[in-house]
Amino acid sequence: MRNLPKREFYEKELKELMNVVAEEWLKTKPEVQKADGHKKKWIKQIKVLRDKEKQTATGESLASGIGFTEFENEDLALFAINYLNNMTLLSS
Fold this sequence. Notes:
By secondary structure, this protein is α+β, with helices and mostly antiparallel strands. 38% of the residues lie in helices and 26% in strands. It has a two-stranded antiparallel sheet with strand order 1-2. Strand 1 (43-55) and strand 2 (61-71) form a beta hairpin. It is elongated.
C-alpha cells in the first residue's frame, strides 16, 4: 500500500483497517464463513515502513506512507486490493 493517510499511521491502524477488509470479504463468502468463521486469523503479517530521517518529538521514526500486509488467502488479498483501490481515508 502506498500513500497511507497520515504520518502516525502505524501497524495498529493498518491492522484495524485490514480487519475491516477481511470482515467485508467474509460477508461475500458464506462458504468460507461457515467453514472457518471469525476464528481463523486471515492476516499473517503487517509492516509499515518508517522514515529514519523524520522523527517525532520523542525520537520515534514517523511512518513513510508505505505499508505491507500479508494475508492467509489469495482471494482475500485480491479483494483487499480492489476494496482499497482509490479509497479515501479521513484522518481525525
